[in-house]
Q: What sequence folds into this?
């Protein structure tokens, strides 16, 4: 049972890493930021080449093609993020957490044509809304995803009333979810805590404020707090 879309991966070296996929809202803002930069580049090229006649028109079309299709590729393979993504703390990685390379970046960006269908990136938007990792078509085909560059802060301290004996067997994923809830509780509003606690009611067998206290107590038991 997961209470958020955070992804936990284990590297070949046995190191656990956490990735948090970026949602459609922040990715749209990053896209608009990059779009404005591309427009400025094309406009500057158009002004500079406006006096070259027909040859200038041909050169402008080449600039438009290069900027549209290779602007994101160049930044993603050199820095892992376009200026727009950088401004919002996002980066592009493979599904296994490794940095994206030329092949992956080319694939995910060439398939933006599919994401655009039938208009205004409608297919890509719907695909992201239906994806647990907020992937568009290009991400699925390229095996990539857009994540937050810096992992969310994990709290090492949380308060609890008393340790609660765990009467049911919890699998590893569920244990991580319970502990994550307790650690993040100080950064969550009471309403959000209640919402998440109610989702995990199959574990606590209770709902309401008592569920929050119960979950924190179980977490304290799992991490050995006294």
A:
């Amino acid at each position: 049972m997961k209470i958020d879309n955070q992804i936990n991966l284990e590297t070949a070296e046995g190191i656990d890493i956490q990735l948090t996929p970026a949602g459609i809202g922040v990715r749209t803002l990053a896209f608009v930021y990059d779009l404005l930069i591309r427009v400025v580049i094309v406009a500057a090229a158009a002004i500079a080449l406006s006096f070259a006649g027909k040859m200038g028109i041909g050169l402008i079309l080449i600039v438009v093609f290069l900027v549209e299709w290779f602007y994101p590729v160049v930044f993603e393979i050199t820095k892992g993020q376009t200026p727009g993504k950088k401004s919002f703390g996002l980066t592009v990685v493979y599904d296994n957490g490794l940095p994206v390379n030329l092949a992956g970046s080319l694939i995910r960006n060439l398939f933006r044509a599919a994401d655009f269908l039938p208009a205004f990136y409608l297919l890509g938007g719907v695909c992201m809304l239906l994806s647990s990792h907020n992937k568009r078509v290009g991400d699925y085909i390229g095996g990539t995803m857009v994540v937050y560059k810096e992992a969310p802060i994990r709290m090492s301290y949380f308060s609890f009333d008393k340790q609660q004996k765990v009467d049911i067997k919890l699998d590893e994923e569920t244990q991580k979810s319970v502990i994550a809830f307790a650690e993040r509780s100080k950064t969550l509003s009471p309403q959000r805590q209640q919402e998440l606690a109610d989702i995990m009611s199959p574990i606590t067998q209770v709902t309401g404020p008592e569920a929050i206290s119960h979950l924190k107590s179980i977490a304290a038991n799992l991490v050995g707090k006294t």
User: Anything to note?
Assistant: Residues 172-223 form one domain.
